[in-house]
Amino acid sequence: MFKKRLILVSLAILIMVSFISYINGGVNAASKKYVMNLSTQLNESDPLVKGFKQLKKNVEEKTDGNLIIQIFPSAQLGSDEDMIEQTRMGVNVALLTDGGRMANYVQNIGIIGMPYLVNNYEEIEKLVNTNLFHEWEDQLANEHGIKVLAFNWYHGPRHFLTNKPIMKPEDLIGIRVRTPGAPVWQESIKALGATPVALGWTEVYTAMQQKVIDGAEAQHLATYTSRLYEVIKYIDKTAHIHLINGIVVGTKWFNSLPSEYQEILIQEANTVGRETALNVIKVADDYEKKMIEAGMEVIESDVDAFKDAAEQAYEVLGFKEVKQKVLEQMNN
């Protein structure tokens, strides 16, 4: 009985020590190693997760294995909202996030998820390197405890997915389209003509089968891997939103790293982000071909008409002046 109790006490102490190490920034005091747990909702097969693995390799090599990155796909660590709060508390967690979620802290950064702000990845790179964007990053770090490592991780342009061809905004009237629940998404899709319906992405396939919704809007990587080509006929190529993602950590944990590790982490996050984006573009083209082979049809929609309609969302959300400032800085 005594031995059994001794084992249980020893186990409890071990767990407690591990937990203390975790909440103190993932530092292994004995070996002076740092650990960053990278969380994402994306599954193992996604090209961005492949990019995370390259980031892990590069960072660990350049820090002689002293900054370790552990990758947790498929929301293994929890929801993005939970992860953001943990980063702010100083836990050694990083996550892939978007402008919509960061807008909960710095409102104007939400504009990066607005329709037709950018037209391609090259313009995304200009956007995230403007002085204005850097000001938003500083606000996140200094006022909210969120440090941006890189915001150039790209998941491709989003298109409407429907069972009738969509050429212009008027064709979307009365069409119930699944969107994320954030106001930026809801107002944008409404401005483009559709009726937004907030649903979790994993619910889209069944919701289409049961006619709860009439369509969705998504980038090819999500459309193909969710097998929506089995329940949706048309890809309406509007490219209304280019999905820009960023990797963020907590300012408190980031500041606990040696300065050379901080530089390596930021540099590699940006370098691998760009390499991964170029791969995403290639993979998206391959997926489109496969979806056509599976029976989907591509509709070349009137993009100019959709761009005109999108201006209403900027008015409603108060982003018109911010958009003008962003475009001016991008073009300088």
Automatic annotation (TrEMBL):
Entry keywords, A to Z? Signal
- InterPro entries tied to this protein: DctP_fam, TRAP_DctP, TRAP_DctP_sf
Q: What's the superkingdom here?
A: Bacteria
Annotated GO biological processes are: transmembrane transport
GO CC aspect terms: outer membrane-bounded periplasmic space
Gene3D superfamilies in the cross-refs:
Bacterial extracellular solute-binding protein, family 7
Note the PANTHER family from the entry: C4-DICARBOXYLATE-BINDING PROTEIN (PTHR33376:SF3), PTHR33376
Q: What is this protein called?
A: DctP family TRAP transporter solute-binding subunit
Q: Which organism is it from?
A: Iocasia fonsfrigidae
Organism placement in taxonomy: Bacteria, Bacillati, Bacillota, Clostridia, Halanaerobiales
